[in-house]
Task: structure prediction
Amino acid sequence: MRINHDTRCALDQAVELLNTMPDGDTPDTLVSVADLRDYLVRNKVSGVGALTQDDLRAVRAVRERFSQVFAASDARTAAQLINTLVAGAGTTPQLTDHDGYDWHVHYFAPGASVAQHLAADCGMALAFVLVAGELDRLRRCSAPDCRRAFVDLSRNRSRRYCDSRTCGNRLHVAAYRARRRESAADG
Result:
């Protein structure tokens, strides 16, 4: 799947936002305005002014919508969720160049809240994935103790883990050790 830089950045923002959600023993990491500010800085979200508790609540609601899109069982359900998300953001596509980036499209209206910004840009990135017929690339980690989100951009759609260096490697090492224990018990 070929995607442009802006779409990739927006997908990464959506995934990182999703991965702030609580999961099993992992606590919610988007609980304060400071957490929201940290997320926005890490993801280089531009044009963000002063943040409030209302912004935090609104972004957490957008996060829940993204979670529903990743969990959608079919394209029609995902499309309805994305349409609602993007329409609620009051999208106003406009060409822009800023912060050293060449021309690209922002989908949020000038003066949009941070939640509208994320809903519009990330919602459109999710829409592009759906339009490309690639909804199955929106995944959750296959590790039994991890449900982190990721977008599988591998050529053969084979990615199973949120991070091959952590979850993937941990499971492969566990399987190797189990085989060695089994082999030692048989020998």
About this structure: Residues 116 and 148 are 23 Å apart (CA to CA). Strands lie at 94-96, 104-106, 138-140, 149-151.
